[in-house]
């Protein structure tokens, strides 16, 4: 059942809070985490994703998983831990190392009636499957004149981790962005990761589902087996008035860290998690832009050709008169991600940059409230 | 639902052959052993003849239509290779699948797609099998199990594996009580140097998929001779493709691709093998395309002598002679088959010519199976609900 927009807005704010508390707890002590534990059972994001896959495989016998080490190893990030024991080696298929090959096999299986979830052990490895993702996954429904659909979910961890080096730190959302016929979804919390993955599995469209390598141990409450999110909806994380910050994936936490600081200084930013990187939820986006009239985009992909580049263009084109300031993009530097900690940190957006950007765009001191 | 998930005992991703002896016994590469063409029934012989003539006449008509400005872009004709398509595909069942490359018109016809649908597709009309959206290189038919038509060689083979995987899944995992569907992937000598070919050989053998690799070795990949592109197999004068099957634990078979009866026999064995659950086969059919790589290819690199040599082995007169010599068909039978083909080809051109072109409204329709994929517009409606969507004029990004 798809959540209505109103439910989502309030539900999302509740969902953000436990995960956010978990992050702060690590820094400021155990107070917040104890409070969080007193509520319903908290699980980690990898467990939530695993629950989503398990529930959907149980519900629909045509759902299957393919990827490297998804079976006996349980998945590099444990998202399919133990599932092969329940469903067997064919439904949780350990593939050889041949991304283009097994992605194509997933496409063929999807065309003929199965619903494969194809895992890239790291999103970056899917560069090797670009041929199949672009040509076949994205285009086949069209070039076949609507005869075949490709209901695949392509998922895996991407993003900058902890000193994993350039090749394991890639953000493929910007590379896949232009492929016609695919949807791009980025999860960020325990609750939305499970609900979105369930929706992605049920969707008849090919969905590229972005997880983040540093978010798998984030804690929170997941929904139950009927909690299925809307794939095309953004999530309002925090309502505000001064400025809207559009973000996604792990940068949501970086933004919320900055927002905590800004709130202390008297600012009132609105934060929207895009969730759907393609297509954009223009209703939510337009509403926030009109309300705040100032936009910052905080993303982890490169500045050039990134998700923010598209979003910025769309906002300028369609909401120009609603803006008091040009859209500000905070993106990763157009450099390969270095191994050294300091250089890696300098490549991606840090919360202090978000704070500075709000100061720049809203004013050095918080607006006077009537 | 749980009961449907019963697994046949011991079903796992098939283990690769562990003992070398076992591999050799199964995968001994061999030429087709029959020096004499194997026997056919009159019905099968006539069906093969009809199908080859249909393929040839259709393709020759395409050449005419192209030069008359009725079809455009890259058109790759199959003339000369008919024995492979007919020999393999005519014995497939409706629930079996075919995957091809850009040289796919005749594979589609052999599998049962009507000449009308294929020609209309080539003319870019909305009555084409893909509503005019695919074109020459992307023939698809859900009804007849044609999974495409792929422009990038090699990218269709894993798709073929996926269909084979699905068949095995339905039988082994979902417990559906029916035979395995067999998938045949067709591609050329050039494709045999693409990585996906090797990735697919490995997975097909590993998982024992009901999939047949049919290499139509016509010795040329546009202007690149197979001998210049492919390293020789160990101890051989030539780069043999069929021998690569053994490296992956599957039988590799070489067959004269200009003799439809030999192809038929070899394919029969491979199809039965796959149907029994014994896994994939690699068939290398030595054949030749009488025309250039595409209708835009000046075809200057292939020598006149080479072309003449292969033209003399045209599969169609070969079968005709065999049928007459062995009493499988009379001259009158053969003439009536040829007349029927001529009628069909003429009809399909007329149909394609008179068919309407796609309207603007088709532009956005098949991008997504679920049109919610275009997202939500500013006013809260899904974009596909906007009035301009069905007329193809909506702003969708």
Automatic annotation (TrEMBL), chain A:
One GO molecular-function entry: pyruvate dehydrogenase (acetyl-transferring) activity
EC number: 1.2.4.1
Cofactor: thiamine diphosphate
Cited Pfam families: Transket_pyr, Transketolase_C
Source organism, top-level taxon: Eukaryota
Broad EC category: oxidoreductase
UniProt xrefs under InterPro entries: THDP-binding (IPR029061), Transketo_C/PFOR_II (IPR009014), Transketolase-like_Pyr-bd (IPR005475), Transketolase_C (IPR033248)
CDD domains: TPP_PYR_E1-PDHc-beta_like
UniProt catalytic activity: N(6)-[(R)-lipoyl]-L-lysyl-[protein] + pyruvate + H(+) = N(6)-[(R)-S(8)-acetyldihydrolipoyl]-L-lysyl-[protein] + CO2
Keywords (A to Z) from UniProt: Oxidoreductase, Thiamine pyrophosphate
Domain Transketolase-like pyrimidine-binding span(s) in chain numbering: 43-218
Keyword check for S-adenosyl-L-methionine: no
Function comment: The pyruvate dehydrogenase complex catalyzes the overall conversion of pyruvate to acetyl-CoA and CO(2). It contains multiple copies of three enzymatic components: pyruvate dehydrogenase (E1), dihydrolipoamide acetyltransferase (E2) and lipoamide dehydrogenase (E3).
PANTHER family: PYRUVATE DEHYDROGENASE E1 COMPONENT BETA SUBUNIT, PYRUVATE DEHYDROGENASE E1 COMPONENT SUBUNIT BETA
UniProt protein name: pyruvate dehydrogenase (acetyl-transferring)
Organism lineage: Eukaryota, Viridiplantae, Chlorophyta, core chlorophytes, Chlorophyceae
Automatic annotation (TrEMBL), chain B:
Span of domain Dehydrogenase E1 component: 50-359
UniProt EC number: 1.2.4.1
Keyword Nucleotide-binding: no
Catalytic activity as recorded in UniProt: N(6)-[(R)-lipoyl]-L-lysyl-[protein] + pyruvate + H(+) = N(6)-[(R)-S(8)-acetyldihydrolipoyl]-L-lysyl-[protein] + CO2
The keyword Oxidoreductase appears for this protein: yes
Cofactors that this protein relies on: thiamine diphosphate
Full protein name: Pyruvate dehydrogenase E1 component subunit alpha
Protein species of origin: Chlamydomonas incerta
């Amino acid at each position: 059942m798809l959540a209505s927009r109103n439910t989502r807005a309030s539900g999302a704010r509740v969902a953000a809070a436990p995960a956010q508390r978990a992050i702060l707890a690590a820094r400021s002590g155990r107070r917040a985490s104890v409070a969080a534990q007193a509520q319903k059972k908290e699980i980690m994001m990898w467990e939530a994703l695993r629950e989503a896959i398990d529930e959907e495989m149980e519900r629909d016998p045509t759902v299957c998983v393919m990827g490297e080490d998804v079976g006996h190893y349980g998945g590099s990030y444990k998202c399919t831990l133990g599932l092969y024991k329940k469903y067997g080696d064919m439904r949780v298929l350990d593939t050889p190392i041949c991304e283009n090959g097994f992605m194509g096999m997933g496409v063929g299986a999807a065309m003929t009636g199965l619903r494969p979830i194809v895992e890239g052990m790291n999103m970056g490895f899917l560069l090797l499957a670009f041929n199949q993702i672009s040509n076949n996954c994205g285009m086949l429904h069209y070039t076949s004149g609507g005869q075949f659909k490709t209901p695949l979910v392509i998922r895996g961890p991407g993003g900058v981790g902890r000193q994993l080096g350039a090749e394991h730190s890639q953000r493929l959302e910007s590379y896949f962005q232009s492929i016609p016929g695919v949807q791009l979804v980025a999860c960020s919390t325990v609750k939305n990761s499970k609900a979105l993955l369930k929706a992605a599995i049920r969707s008849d469209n090919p969905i590229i589902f972005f997880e983040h390598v540093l978010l798998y141990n984030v804690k929170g409450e997941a929904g139950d087996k009927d909690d299925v999110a809307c794939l095309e909806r953004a999530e309002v994380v925090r309502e505000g008035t001064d400025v809207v910050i559009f973000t996604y994936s792990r940068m949501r936490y970086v933004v919320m860290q900055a927002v905590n600081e800004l709130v202390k200084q008297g600012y009132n930013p609105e934060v929207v998690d895009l969730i759907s990187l393609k297509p954009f939820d223009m209703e939510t986006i337009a509403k926030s832009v009109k309300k705040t009239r100032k936009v910052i985009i905080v993303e982890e992909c490169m500045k050039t050709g990134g998700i923010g580049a598209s979003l910025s263009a769309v906002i300028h084109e369609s909401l120009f008169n609603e803006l008091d300031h040009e859209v500000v993009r905070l993106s990763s530097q157009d450099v390969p991600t270095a191994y050294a900690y300091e250089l890696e940190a300098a490549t991606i957006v840090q919360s202090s940059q978000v704070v500075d950007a709000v100061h720049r765009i809203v004013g050095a001191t918080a607006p006077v409230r009537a | 639902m749980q009961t449907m998930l019963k697994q046949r005992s011991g079903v796992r991703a098939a283990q690769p052959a562990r003992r070398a002896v076992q591999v050799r016994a199964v995968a001994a590469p061999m030429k087709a052993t029959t020096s004499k063409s194997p026997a056919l029934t009159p019905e099968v012989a006539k069906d093969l003849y009809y199908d080859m003539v249909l393929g040839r006449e259709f393709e020759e008509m395409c050449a005419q239509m192209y030069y008359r400005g009725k079809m455009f872009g890259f058109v790759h004709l199959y003339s000369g290779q008919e024995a492979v398509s007919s020999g393999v595909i005519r014995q497939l069942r409706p629930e079996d699948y075919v995957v091809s490359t850009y040289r796919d018109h005749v594979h589609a016809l052999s599998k049962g797609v009507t000449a009308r649908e294929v020609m209309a597709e080539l003319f870019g009309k909305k009555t084409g099998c893909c509503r005019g959206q695919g074109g020459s290189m992307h023939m698809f038919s859900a009804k007849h199990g044609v999974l495409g038509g792929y422009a990038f060689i090699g990218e269709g083979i894993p798709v073929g594996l996926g269909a084979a995987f699905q068949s095995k899944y339905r039988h082994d995992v979902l417990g559906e009580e029916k035979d395995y569907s067999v998938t045949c992937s067709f591609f050329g000598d050039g494709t045999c140097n693409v990585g996906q070919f090797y990735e697919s050989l490995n997975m097909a053998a590993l998982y024992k998929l009901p999939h047949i690799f049919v290499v139509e070795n016509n010795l040329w990949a546009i202007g690149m001779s197979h001998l210049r592109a492919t390293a020789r197999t160990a101890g051989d004068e030539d780069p043999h493709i069929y021998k690569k099957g053994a490296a992956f634990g599957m039988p590799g078979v070489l067959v004269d691709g200009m003799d439809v009866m030999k192809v038929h026999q070899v394919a029969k064995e491979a199809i039965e093998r796959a149907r029994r659950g014994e896994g994939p086969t690699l068939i290398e059919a030595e054949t030749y395309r009488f025309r250039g790589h595409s209708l835009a290819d000046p075809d200057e690199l292939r020598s006149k002598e080479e072309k003449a040599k292969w033209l003399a082995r045209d599969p169609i007169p070969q079968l005709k002679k065999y049928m007459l010599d062995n009493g499988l068909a009379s001259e009158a039978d053969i003439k009536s088959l040829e007349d029927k083909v001529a009628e069909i080809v003429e009809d399909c051109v007329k149909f394609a010519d008179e068919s309407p072109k796609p309207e603007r409204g088709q532009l956005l329709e098949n991008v997504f199976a679920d049109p919610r994929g275009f997202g939500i517009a500013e006013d809260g409606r899904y974009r596909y609900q906007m009035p301009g969507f069905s007329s193809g004029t909506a702003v969708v990004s």
